[in-house]
Structures are given as structure tokens and as C-alpha cells.
Design brief:
heterodimer; A: about 160 residues; alpha+beta; 60s Ribosomal Protein L30, Chain: A; 5-stranded mixed beta sheet; 10 strands; about 35% strand; B: alpha/beta; Rossmann fold; 5 strands
């Protein structure tokens, strides 16, 4: 079974039978997972910061680093493989409170607020969200059955996307 | 179009949460806060609001008393009021229904539940409700 690893500021889309997509050590970052049951197609992104649109003209700009620019890209990649907005189930993970030294950044909350704003604007609703707290999470989705395995702290949760 | 919304809750933390959700609706919303029913009436004397979100169990004047006061004023008797409370007893719900509340949400709630409820109520009472215009309509769409 092939495992596609999504790193920070990265995304992956797969309809490869027997494969899974996984991201590790999710703290204040956002992990968004999309799944199309009929097509057996999954997408995952792991974005670091809330807003990057204003930085989009910089030469080293990475759209996947920012929630506001990454989310549309993930949806569009899934559309290329036949999914539609209506056929995709959407799940959010991460956005934990990992305090910086100055204790003021609040990145996790801001990441989730940015996600909600962009989903709302596009008439997309979250099926489920596993966000906040101060735990590190690992998220894996299996392409064949759409099962999401969520490890947070010492516990593992299985989420059915059907 | 901007909306004035009054949030009444004796917990300042809860008022902050509700304010955050209100700002996530994408609407142009100005939030007024009151820590009790009495404070809420003071705000209403000075400021027109389009909607009230109120807690029930508060010192000095409960949310139910507040709604009764509001309904007794001709000026405010059609003002939409939504109750956000830990209280879930049937007799209580029936009482608030008789007072004509526009919505009820039990604490704890999901942000999306509150957002959807607020939008539904505003939509019902304002035919021309539209998300605030943004400069980035072309970007970020999918």
C-alpha cells in the first residue's frame, strides 16, 4: 500500500487504489481533507499560516503555505480528476494552540477562521472538524474506503467519510 | 448594508466567542455588548439594533425578563431575538417561544451552528441580506 506524505506547505490528491495520504505532526497548521466517495478520490493539504494573498507577487511565494491561497488549489486539483463541489466531503484538522514565545500569535485560531471564511464564501460546509486544543495530530485518509485515521495525543479516532 | 447586533451575556469570554463568529459571517456587522439584561436595555435606549443574541441565566435581570421588557415596547416588539443558553428544559423553550424568539441555540455550540442560525434569522427579517463586498471576489473562488 503506497503512502503519500504531505509535508508542511504541501498538498496531494490521489485516486490510486490501495494508496493513502498522510500528514504528520500537525500543530497550529491546518490540514484540510476532501473525499469523493464515488470516484474514490481524496485530497489533503497542510498549510502553515492564514493569509498570503498579499504576498503572492513575491518571487518565492508558495501558495500552499497559506490557507487562503491553498484551499482553492486543493479543490481545483480534485475538480481536475472529476470531482465537483457537491461530491466532495470536507474535513478540517489541526489549528491547535501552540504558543509562541511571545504568546500572542494565535495562529491556529486564525488559520481556522480563515478557512471558515473561504468555505463560507464558496458555499462549502465542513462535515466535521477536529481542531483546536493543544495536541499534535496525525491525519491519514485511505483512498479505497475513505476512512480517516486521526491520531491526537495518545488516542486514535477512525472517521467514516461516507 | 450594515447590521447592528447586540450580544447580551454575563460571560465576557462568551461575548468574545460570539463576536468572533459574527465577524466570520462575511456580513458588515457592528457588535454592541451588554453584560446583563439591564445593560442591554440601556444600550437599546441609545442605539438601534437589528437583532439581539441573549443568554438566559444572568444576574440582575434574566434573558427571559429582558425579552418580556423588549416585547412590551411597541418599538421593539418585532425585533428578532435569539436565545443562546445552557437551558434546555421544555417548559423554558415553550415560554421563550411564546415570547416570539426567532431562534434558540444550546451551549455549547459549534461556530457553524451559530453562524447559520444568525444568517437565517437576518435573512428572514431582511430581504436584501448580502455578504459584505470584498475586494477579492475574483480570487479565492473555487
Amino acid at each position: 500500500m503506497s503512502k503519500i506524505i504531505v509535508r508542511i506547505s504541501d498538498m496531494a490528491v490521489s485516486n490510486l487504489p490501495g494508496s493513502s495520504i498522510v500528514t504528520y505532526a500537525l500543530g497550529s497548521c491546518l490540514c484540510l481533507v476532501l473525499y469523493d466517495k464515488k470516484l474514490k478520490l481524496a485530497g489533503m493539504l497542510h498549510s502553515l499560516l492564514p493569509e498570503g494573498k498579499e504576498k503572492s507577487l513575491l518571487p518565492d511565494f508558495n501558495a500552499l503555505k497559506y490557507v487562503d491561497t491553498a484551499v482553492p488549489l486543493l479543490f481545483k486539483e480534485c475538480y481536475k480528476l472529476g470531482a465537483t463541489k457537491q461530491s466532495l466531503k470536507v474535513y478540517a484538522f489541526g489549528c491547535a494552540t501552540i504558543r509562541d514565545a511571545a504568546n500572542v500569535m494565535n495562529i491556529g485560531d486564525r488559520n481556522f477562521a480563515t478557512l471558515q471564511k473561504i468555505l463560507w464564501k464558496n458555499n462549502v460546509f465542513l462535515e466535521q472538524e477536529f481542531v483546536g486544543g493543544s495536541v499534535s495530530r496525525t491525519v491519514e485518509i485511505q483512498i479505497d474506503d475513505g476512512l480517516i485515521l486521526l491520531k491526537q495525543g495518545n488516542s486514535t479516532i477512525t472517521i467514516e467519510t461516507g | 448594508m450594515a447590521y447592528n447586533i447586540l450580544v447580551v451575556d454575563d460571560s465576557s469570554a462568551m461575548r468574545v466567542v460570539i463576536k468572533k463568529v459574527l465577524h466570520m459571517t462575511g456580513l458588515d456587522i457592528l457588535v454592541f455588548e451588554a453584560g446583563s439584561g439591564i445593560d442591554a436595555l440601556t444600550v437599546l435606549e441609545e442605539q438601534w439594533v437589528d437583532m439581539i443574541l441573549t443568554d438566559i441565566h444572568m444576574p440582575q435581570m434574566s434573558g427571559v425578563e429582558l425579552i418580556e421588557k423588549i416585547r412590551s415596547h411597541q418599538e421593539f416588539n418585532t425585533l428578532p431575538v435569539m436565545v443562546i443558553s445552557t437551558e434546555g428544559r421544555e417548559d423554558f423553550l415553550s415560554k421563550t417561544q411564546k415570547l416570539g424568539v426567532a431562534g434558540y441555540l444550546k451551549k455549547p455550540f459549534q461556530a457553524t451552528e451559530l453562524r447559520n442560525a444568525i444568517l437565517a434569522i437576518l435573512e428572514e427579517h431582511n430581504a436584501d441580506i448580502q455578504p459584505a463586498a470584498t475586494n477579492d471576489d475574483e480570487d479565492g473562488d473555487f
